[in-house]
């Protein structure tokens, strides 16, 4: 184990080509999916948190259901849709980073929506009253709500990013964990550990834990700022 740890540290410090490729694919997938999830989840979260309308309760239930969606089920759905017998087979997206991003967006968008909805619902009445008194329209009110929850937006994004970078079930099914193409940190750790290549698995584990630690510390600082 001591030797494997030494080799793992050497791989990190020497910027091993395979390690760098895995980190690059992971970054592409995680950043793209978390940004898309934020762009979709931000307006939905603000809408659900600030407005009362028919069907709102149904949308909240659907969102909570999607939050509990097992990643392997999400991966299975996308696999069936884009496989050789699926309705979208002509797009040839299976075993690509693009379909991994799509699956991740389905999994992490509900997290963004729920995080923003719960926060906005607490401040929306005051903000809407202020906007009404100033004669602001719907778009200006939306901007005002967004400005008031800017730290929560960053927190929601980081939560989505941390979920994306740690996901393994869906991405392994639709991406295939193909070396030098769709292998990400989580799938590579499983793959190389099963092969007995502990040094690369440990190196990836160290990096993943470090990133997760930094993200969680940042989220804690943002939440502390929000509580003031």
List the helices and strands and how they pair.
Layout: H1 2-13, H2 17-50, H3 56-67, H4 71-82, H5 97-134, H6 138-148, H7 150-166, H8 169-175, H9 185-195, H10 198-227
Helix pairs in contact: 1-10, 2-5, 2-7, 3-5, 4-5, 4-8, 5-6, 5-7, 5-8, 7-10, 9-10
Number of H/I helices = 10
Give the structural class: mainly alpha
Structure summary, number of beta strands: 0
The string of secondary-structure elements, in order, is HHHHHHHHHH
Helical percentage: over 70%
What does the main sheet amount to?
none
Task: Return residue spans where pLDDT drops below 50 for at least 5 consecutive residues.
Answer: none
How much strand? under 5%
Per the principal axes of the C-alpha atoms, what is the gross shape? globular
Mean pLDDT over the residues: 90
